[in-house]
Design brief:
four-stranded antiparallel β-sheet, single chain, mainly beta, 119 residues
């Protein structure tokens, strides 16, 4: 059974930092590209960051470029998102999403972890 379990969310003030983790199991993690997607209250999902299965290519949306860093540890089958200089507009639920390599689609989502940026 494929499992993606996010953790590390919480409430922080503007300018703060959080590190999200996504522990995976039930599949060969190193065979898949991975993404982070977030959803703000009352809005649709927003893709924010991608990393390929080799950690040789990664990129992020303009809204988080220079503040968020995606990474992965294939030995630990875990995906990470380091979030710095958080802003109130970063508030939302953050999802770890699996992407079969070279297929351009998302096939499994985690349950998400809540991030709230507020004074």
């Amino acid at each position: 059974e494929v499992q993606l379990v996010e953790s590390g969310g919480g409430m922080v003030p503007p300018g703060g930092s959080l590190r999200l983790s996504c522990a995976t199991s039930g599949f060969t993690f190193s065979d898949y590209d991975m993404n982070w997607v977030r959803q703000a209250p009352g809005k649709g999902p927003e893709w924010i960051s991608f990393i390929d299965r080799y950690s040789s290519l990664s990129y992020s949306s303009k809204s988080v470029q220079g503040r968020f860093t995606i990474s992965r540890d294939n030995a630990k089958t875990t995906l990470y998102l380091q979030m710095d200089n958080l802003k109130p507009e970063d508030t939302g639920r953050y999802y770890c999403v699996r992407e079969p390599a070279d297929e351009g689609l998302f096939d499994y989502w985690g349950q998400g972890t809540q991030v709230t940026v507020s004074e």
